[in-house]
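Entry 12.
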Amino acid sequence: MLRPLRTHLDARGSLTEFYDPRWDLPGDGVRFGEFVTFRPDVVKGWARHRHKTDRHFVMLGDIQCVLYDDRPESSTKGLITDVTLGPSAPQLLVIPPMVWHAFRNLSSTDALLVGIPDRVYDHDAPDKETLPMTNDIIPYRFV
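Predicted 3D structure (tokens):
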């Protein structure tokens, strides 16, 4: 799910609304916040969460997000989704549990992604599975 975000501009700068409980987003409300930096041309992934719904938007730079759905019951099973997130067209990306995802910084400087997942991160028992970038499950290769 992608949700366009509203930006208010004036002579001083801008304000972008990135979360509103009235949007009735999938998941269990906002319970945690994080931000992730990406060095230029770095790819992070593949990962998926067993229970957590991810919600991401990019504050700085342009980040490519590739998703792969291998959930047996899903109507999008087997599909690759490739989106670019960035402040020039702000969007909130919602990633449901059990969908593989990876991110690549397309910018020549560091990029910044903000996450507002629906669950608190458990350092002792992370809700996360990972795969190497090249694997036999996900039919996508970053070039």
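Annotation: The mean pLDDT is 91. The first strand starts at residue 2 and ends at 4.
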